Amino acid sequence: xxxxxxxxxxxxxxxxxxxxxxxxxxxxxxxxxxxxxxxxxxxxxxxxxxxxxxxxxxxxxxxxxxxxxxxxxxxxxxxxxxxxxxxxxxxxxxxxxxxxxxxxxxxxxxxxxxxxxxxxxxxxxxxxxxxx
Length: 132
Description:
The protein has one domain: Nuclear Transport Factor 2, Chain: A. It is 32% helix and 44% strand. It has helices at 3-14, 17-22, 41-54, 122-131, and strands at residues 24-31, 37-39, 55-67, 72-83, 97-109, 112-120. The model has no long low-confidence stretch (mean pLDDT 96).
């Protein structure tokens, strides 16, 4: 298991954005599900601030995989969340809960994450929060 990726997810579950940022390279490429690539820690921190305003999430059932001598990693997990505030272009928020399978892929260099790509089924999320 990749220790940097584990620290990244431990920080995520603790709501510790600074801890997540400490795991990233300065020029990290953040590939967002259904979104544009954001480059750099500043853009990543802005994304986290937005997400923390709209969502409260905890990741469970975590399995971390490592390849290429620690230069690549992947994780599979379940997102357990609450939709706190309406996110632009999405259904209205009123405290709905959701549970989604998701995965992330990483490139690493010198113990830092240089790329984060996360995938989940947006249509499933929309269905869950629309029926909640």
